[in-house]
Specification:
- By secondary structure, the protein is an alpha/beta fold.
- It has one domain: Rossmann fold (3-Layer(aba) Sandwich), CATH 3.40.50.1820.
- It is about 30% helix and about 25% strand.
- It has helices at about 60-70, 95-110, 125-135, 175-185, 205-220, and strands at about 5-10, 15, 20-25, 25-35, 40-45, 75-80, 115-120, 140-145, 165-170, 190-195.
- Strand 3 (about 20-25) and strand 4 (about 25-35) form a beta hairpin.
């Protein structure tokens, strides 16, 4: 389940490494951000946006969400879905990608077996994360950024009792907020919806507000 990887220092309080995760279609490229000293408060995995439209673990929204979670005390794993970057395999229209994410959370759970496990995703990644969280009771918290309601089904959340935080830009041209407002009431409690005023789908010029919203909501919810 584990693999080797190059380690690099990011700063006095953070350590980056690049473990290779054994996925169902081959090795998955990843980036792990942990504290340089002391134990993390929880573990988190963040899923990137659509592979066919340039989505990778280095996406700026994914990077910002991962940074916010790390700032809240988490050990954070980002990974590339099959066929992206150095990850082996080929795009599987969302089915195989759920299994990639499952391999990632299993790897993180094995590394930090005593920590609570959170799962987050942006756009396509939020669709993957939502479906996996509905199947995986080990996921204790779910964070969805700009879920693609127009193109993907989120019925898996209708009966998913995992606590959910959803963050949506009010000017999202790809995942219109009005569609989310129609679907969100159908999702099982507990849940919370946060809006970032004026933010587009990729939170252009609004990344700071995105990070601040995630951190504030997590604290107000009492998750940390």
């Amino acid at each position: 389940m584990t693999g080797g990887g190059h380690a690099a220092q990011e700063g006095p309080t953070s350590r980056l490494s690049t473990p290779s995760i054994a996925g169902p279609a081959g090795a998955l490229e990843s980036l792990l951000q942990e504290r340089a000293h002391g134990a993390p408060a929880f573990a988190a995995v963040v899923c990137h946006p659509h592979p066919l439209y340039g989505g990778t673990l280095h996406n700026k929204v994914v990077h910002r969400v991962a940074g916010s979670l790390h700032g809240l005390g988490a050990a954070v794993l980002r990974f590339n879905f099959r066929g992206v970057g150095k990850s082996e395999g080929a795009h599987d229209r969302g089915s195989g990608e759920v299994e990639d994410a499952r391999a990632a959370i299993d790897w993180m759970r094995a590394r930090h077996p005593d920590l609570g496990l959170w799962l987050a995703g942006f756009s396509f990644g939020s669709w993957i994360a939502a479906r996996l969280a509905a199947q995986a009771p080990q996921v204790e918290r779910l964070i969805l950024i700009a879920p693609p309601i127009r193109t993907s089904s989120f019925t898996a959340l209708h009966e998913c009792a995992t606590p959910k935080l959803v963050v949506q830009g009010t000017a999202d041209e790809i995942c219109p907020p009005e569609l989310l407002h129609e679907e969100f009431p159908r999702w099982a409690e507990p849940k919370r919806l946060e809006l970032v005023e004026g933010a587009s789908h990729f939170f252009d010029r609004k990344l700071a507000e995105l990070g601040e919203t995630v951190e504030r909501a997590v604290r107000e919810l009492g998750w940390v």
